[in-house]
Design goal:
This protein is mainly alpha-helical. It folds into four domains: 166 residues, Alpha Horseshoe (Serine Threonine Protein Phosphatase 5, Tetratricopeptide repeat); 103 residues, Tetratricopeptide repeat domain (Serine Threonine Protein Phosphatase 5, Tetratricopeptide repeat, Alpha Horseshoe), CATH 1.25.40; 51 residues, no CATH class; 37 residues, no CATH class. The chain has 19 helices and three strands. Strands 2-1-3 form a three-stranded antiparallel sheet, with no helix packed on it. It is elongated, with a radius of gyration of 29 Å.
Length: 390
């Protein structure tokens, strides 16, 4: 698989080199030189297609040396080195390119952007920040530089600077970054909550709502603030608002919501709300919540009957496990042993399943993340709906 990724990384460089080689055909006076250049290009491409990346790079480096002015070729090679993990080589190449006399301002800016990406890949975030900040100050490729700065500040968890640069990006490009900025304010609010600065946390959450009125995470944080203050009835309202804002986050919201229903003695309201959810949400979480409610209120038989009827409509491995657990005390002998085996198998099946997936890049996870660990997008990790998941 890694060889395929390397091949995919090399192909763009090969086509850039091919374009340059074909371009040189019309300007070379020596047919021998043209033939040599074309021969080298196709030899390198052959290495590339045969997944002999090291030999291909040697050939392409030779092509780049034919003419020191082939900036595009050097940029392609530097990008290739970075993709292969050879960041030191990419840095040296781009630094050399930036220092070359006679380089146009436009090409120098492109080389600086590539150098900044090299620094980021190498973990030299202070150098990358300084470089991108200089480009923004010069108004050179500012949108790209701003994007990189926002990524750096997210990595450093400097949310104030991330917000500042995200707003500058909105003004410069006209793109709407409200969802991302709302998440930055939620990060600030959660940090303030952990430090006991509750008034400050509420101010940040209000700013999150100003950016995104239906921000699920902000509703959940308000619910948590109310719950931790003992204001469980107000927490119920906030958590219900979170589900109504985006029902996809139900598995994350239901546990604290159910706790607040119980603490505020609003179990009738809980049943009404969960019953309503059955028609709007096709996952298993509301079913399991109602099963527990009926077990406490009406007894084990009523809970089992409800769960069984629901599983006929929405098959679920999690629901099956709950049904097995509920019936284990009522069976004996060989049947019980068979049920124990079945329960063990279903548990192992669930342990190997991703429960959440990023709608942007497809990253699978067992736990929920507000920011995708893979593509770094916000609010794109959602429960997977299926027999073996939600």
């Amino acid at each position: 698989m890694s060889s395929l990724y390397a091949l995919a990384a090399l192909v763009p460089a090969a086509f850039v080199l091919g374009w340059w080689a074909s371009r040189r055909v019309g300007t070379r006076r020596s047919g021998v030189r043209v033939s040599e250049l074309s021969s080298d290009y196709f030899r390198g491409l052959n290495y590339l297609l045969n997944e002999e990346q090291d030999k291909a790079i040697e050939v392409f480096l030779k092509l780049a040396e034919y003419n020191r002015d082939t900036v595009e070729t050097h940029l392609a090679l530097g990008n290739l080195f970075r993709r292969r993990g050879e960041v030191d080589r990419a840095i040296r190449l781009h630094q050399h390119l930036v220092s070359r006399p006679g380089l146009s301002d436009a090409m120098k800016t492109v080389a600086l952007l590539e150098l900044g990406e090299d620094y980021m890949r190498a973990g030299l975030l202070d150098r990358a920040e300084a470089l991108f900040s200089d480009l923004v100050a010069l108004d050179s490729h500012a949108p790209s530089a701003l994007r990189h700065l926002i990524a750096i500040y997210q990595h450093e968890r400097d949310w104030h600077k991330a917000i500042e640069h995200a707003r500058r990006f909105e003004v410069m490009t006209g793109e709407d970054e409200a969802t991302m900025i709302a998440q930055f304010y939620c990060e600030l609010a959660d940090r303030s909550r952990q430090h006991g600065a509750l008034a400050e946390a509420r101010e940040y959450l209000q700013k999150a709502f100003d950016c995104q009125p239906d921000c699920v995470r902000a509703f959940m944080l308000i619910g948590r603030l109310h719950s931790e203050a003992g204001e469980h009835a107000d927490a119920v309202v906030a958590y219900e608002s979170a589900i109504n804002a985006d029902i996809a986050f139900t598995p994350e919201i239901l546990p604290p919501l159910l706790d607040c229903y119980a603490r505020s003695q609003q179990m009738e309201r809980a049943e009404v709300f969960l019953r309503d959810m059955l028609g709007r949400y096709h996952g298993i979480s509301p079913v399991l919540a109602l099963t527990r409610l009926y077990r406490q209120r009406d007894g084990e038989r009523a809970a089992i009957d409800f769960l069984t009827s629901q599983l006929r409509q929405r098959p679920s491995v999690r629901g099956l496990m709950a049904l097995i657990d509920a019936t284990m005390d009522k069976i004996e002998g060989e049947v019980r042993e068979n049920f124990l085996i079945l329960r063990d198998l279903t548990r192992k099946l669930l342990e190997g399943q991703a429960m959440y997936r990023c709608s942007r890049c497809g990253f699978g996870a067992k736990a929920h993340h507000w920011q995708c660990p893979s593509c770094k997008s916000w609010s794109t990790i959602r429960p997977i709906h299926g027999v073996a998941s939600e």
